[in-house]
Design goal:
195 residues; alpha/beta; Maf protein; six-stranded mixed sheet
């Protein structure tokens, strides 16, 4: 895959092109805060996208790639009971991934991403089902997303949504920024569930 650089300035890097990523990094730098990720379906794309912004080393603590279900427990601390009863693609799993990333990497903010990029449904969850967990100083929230497209498009749109929601939470822009834990909707999502 070609990426933008001195030898190929005309070819954009598809990973670092998520809108708002530079705004996210700048907002974290201004606040002296850090970020960590625990990623399943995106397999490190969120962390790589953030790392593509100059200055990201001041805010990106690290990330956990927890593609396999057992690693969600072993590395990110998702409860075995949660994985057994609700499954790897669930609101509770995303919440615990976010908290686990934040805790394991000693960061101010943690992001958890889990979902189904396709081509087949998983454990009753249709392709495009994504749960995004955000854990920060004001609490933890989870959103259920319904994304469309091929595997790459679903994964990149999950990254774009994570960046946008982080900016919203960190800067207080957009919707209500009250503290607390809960499941919300985003991206045209329907009622949140864990099935």
């Amino acid at each position: 895959m070609s990426t933008q650089g001195p030898d190929r300035p005309d070819v954009p890097d598809p990973v670092t092109g998520a809108p708002g990523t530079a705004v996210l990094v700048a907002a974290l730098i201004r606040r002296g805060q850090t970020l960590a990720t625990a990623e399943s379906l995106t397999a490190g794309l969120l962390a790589a996208t953030i790392a593509g912004v100059p200055g990201a080393s001041a805010v990106l603590r690290g990330g956990l790639i927890v593609y396999a279900t057992d690693l969600k427990h072993r590395l990110a601390g998702v409860g075995e009971h949660t994985l057994a009863t609700e499954g790897p693609v669930a609101a509770a799993t995303a919440e615990q991934l976010a908290v686990g990333a934040r805790t394991a990497c000693l960061a101010d903010w943690g992001v958890g991403l889990t979902g189904v990029a396709g081509p087949d449904a998983q454990n009753g969850c249709p392709v495009g089902t994504v749960f995004l967990g955000l854990s920060g100083p004001g609490g933890t929230e989870v959103m259920r997303l319904h994304l469309v497209g091929d595997r790459w498009t679903i994964r990149m749109n999950a990254v774009r949504t994570a960046v946008a929601e982080l900016v919203r939470r960190i800067t207080g822009s957009g919707t209500d920024n009250t503290a607390g834990s809960g499941v919300g909707n985003s991206g045209g999502a329907g009622p949140a569930d864990t099935g």
